[in-house]
Amino acid sequence: MRLTGKIINWHADKAFGFITPNGGGDKIFIHKNALTNRNRSPKINDIVSFSVVKDNQGRYCADQATFAGEKVRNKHKKQVTPPIAKLSIYLPVLFFVVLTVSYFLHYLPQKIVFIYLGLSIITFFAYAFDKSKAQRGQWRTQESTLHLLALLGGWPGAAIAQQLLRHKSKKTEFRVVFWFTVVVNTAVLGWLMSAQRELLLSLLT
């Protein structure tokens, strides 16, 4: 069943707000990802039609929301996974395979592999924590913090989290900066493995 309501507040910087149903009742949380038309920025007093679902914490939130006058899109329409999404899954796996092989061939110390693995796990949970706070309407983790974790070596965990958690996977500006951190991090690692290999081994072994 679909409901109609009015957006009573909207936080553009955090991409979420709340709806008051026309029939009365508690206000409903809505995230920008719940909008079928994400090219339009919601404004206060906009009328929207939406369905209600429960999030991972069992709380009610809006889903498949459309602005007044727009058609409801078929939620079950088959979606084609974009190449960049597949890359976000395959690249981290390939990266860790290369790290592991490099370690066994004595091109990298074991500590480097563990550093990347540890930072990736930390970054993955940082994304999960940030998404949880977004769903609850709480204060978010700064994007600069997520980018710093990726730059330091947690980018494999970030890439996987973006796709598995469907978090920070649509915002173009964020994605551009993220992939820039990936290029910088891997370039520095490649330089250390070649020009500074002996120095790196002496420092970490």
Automatic annotation (TrEMBL):
<dbReference type="InterPro" id="IPR002059">
    <property type="entry name" value="CSP_DNA-bd"/>
</dbReference>
<dbReference type="InterPro" id="IPR011129">
    <property type="entry name" value="CSD"/>
</dbReference>
<dbReference type="InterPro" id="IPR010718">
    <property type="entry name" value="DUF1294"/>
</dbReference>
<dbReference type="Pfam" id="PF00313">
    <property type="entry name" value="CSD"/>
</dbReference>
<dbReference type="InterPro" id="IPR052069">
    <property type="entry name" value="Ca-reg_mRNA-binding_domain"/>
</dbReference>
<keyword id="KW-0597">Phosphoprotein</keyword>
<feature type="transmembrane region" description="Helical">
    <location>
        <begin position="176"/>
        <end position="194"/>
    </location>
</feature>
<dbReference type="GO" id="GO:0043488">
    <property type="term" value="P:regulation of mRNA stability"/>
</dbReference>
<dbReference type="Pfam" id="PF06961">
    <property type="entry name" value="DUF1294"/>
</dbReference>
<protein>
    <submittedName>
        <fullName>DUF1294 domain-containing protein</fullName>
    </submittedName>
</protein>
<dbReference type="InterPro" id="IPR012340">
    <property type="entry name" value="NA-bd_OB-fold"/>
</dbReference>
<feature type="transmembrane region" description="Helical">
    <location>
        <begin position="112"/>
        <end position="129"/>
    </location>
</feature>
<keyword id="KW-0812">Transmembrane</keyword>
<dbReference type="GO" id="GO:0005829">
    <property type="term" value="C:cytosol"/>
</dbReference>
<keyword id="KW-0472">Membrane</keyword>
<feature type="domain" description="CSD">
    <location>
        <begin position="2"/>
        <end position="67"/>
    </location>
</feature>
<feature type="transmembrane region" description="Helical">
    <location>
        <begin position="87"/>
        <end position="106"/>
    </location>
</feature>
<keyword id="KW-1133">Transmembrane helix</keyword>
<dbReference type="GO" id="GO:0003730">
    <property type="term" value="F:mRNA 3'-UTR binding"/>
</dbReference>
